[in-house]
């Protein structure tokens, strides 16, 4: 309902209450006047009838009786309201009586028909007493009405108004920062696009978030996080122009909409950048989030997009600004980035690849390639299953291109389950052949591992395929250990109870914490190929590899080196007592149809030496 309509309804309600309080006044005036008039007239008729009765009984006394009853009729009163009896010509009652007497004597009538005489009379009533009482009742009704209006306001209209305002606040404003929420932002952005189309002036949309905001919630609690969000909102509002819109989308993400940046694009971009830089500097100032006065130093990343007219929708503008924000984070955070068409091309390419990934999973376009693993005696001990994608009618897409997208989109979960089931099915197929003792290692993504039902899925796949759990090895990366370590350990122990082994992949490239090695139920450490590549020419890489091997041996862990491509690298690793190897020197990843066929016949014996 429009605001003016609501105000009209409230005023009508107040008027109705006052009107109801004044109704008794009007009722009293109406009944007082007409009731008194009618009762006076009826009393006059009664007196006249009595006179006629008396005169009929004693005709000689007619003159006395007439005068007496005329006096009584003249004194008719009703509730202190004075009445006057006149005829239709306005003659008073005494004059009427004289005329009646004269008429009676001249005509020698036996009696005076007072009833007929009174029938021609009218009644005049003085309104002074009625109006006096009406005024008293009116003032009393006014006070009662005002009291009722006050009660109506206090218990009905004001609560309704507060409820209406609260509903508006809830629908259009963020309850924490009191900033406009996404719904109100979209309304204002649509209006800004229309205004920009008319004026042909540029505007800008900026999306920003607080870098590493999650750390505040995790380390100082959500109360400190809320205070940071409120303080950030106040700083943004004080560093934009009057009339600009500042809104909170949710979490630590804010949107600033700026209008009237002029008709020249370069100048508009410069102004938008100045506003964004002003906001960035303000948000980089220290925050005091608790009574301990310990300052928190934070930064912010900002994505900016310009608009003019209605060439793109408001939703598209937000997506473009969000992409620019993503680029700012990629640049190391605490940065400002503008959207450009190349970014849009990246969006379209990403969307197309995500759609193709979904289709590829349905159309069985994925394959597992197997890369052999050997021990110190050059005996084949296992293989790592590596995912490959062969889209229909297209060139193969490298894992470095589609694996990150699968992680972001969540498709890595169904893809990862397919990889695990396919590898376990292959273990079952090798069960009674010359490769029956091989282990198969598969990579598990952090997103897949963090699924609450991951342990159950592993158990179901092992039961469904009939694979030997002891021959399955799950490779985890160090990044998985950074959060929720207790949950990680619990899952690993539950899976280890099934008989499955764990290997820590790419060791040395992450945090490489000894704390993890001590607590995690690991069986193996895999040295990252970045250390193996220059192991014979870089003394630092050589020292790191020696340290990793020595530490692992002291902890009772197996060590496997990946990326072994030359005999010199293999010889160095052997001199350091590295137990297992994987790399192009031993064999490239190949499909399962070529894996066994490509191995030398003595690959399963201790005397095998690669060519």
Architecture overview:
The protein is α/β, with parallel strands linked by helices. The chain folds into 3 domains: 3-132, no CATH class; 182-339, Alpha-Beta Plaits (2-Layer Sandwich); 350-598, EAL domain (TIM Barrel, Alpha-Beta Barrel), CATH 3.20.20. Helices cover 55% and strands 17% of the residues. It has helices at 3-57, 62-74, 93-107, 114-119, 128-172, 182-199, 213-220, 222-238, 265-283, 314-330, 341-362, 399-409, 412-429, 446-449, 454-465, 485-496, 514-519, 529-532, 539-554, 567-575, 592-598, and strands at residues 77-78, 81-87, 121-125, 203-210, 245-250, 253-258, 287-288, 295-296, 300-307, 336-338, 366-375, 380-389, 439-443, 472-477, 501-507, 524-527, 558-562, 580-582, 590-591. The strands form 4 sheets. The chain has an 8-stranded mixed β-barrel. Strands 5-6-4-9-10 form a 5-stranded mixed β-sheet, sandwiched between helices. Strands 1-2-3 form a 3-stranded antiparallel β-sheet. It is elongated.
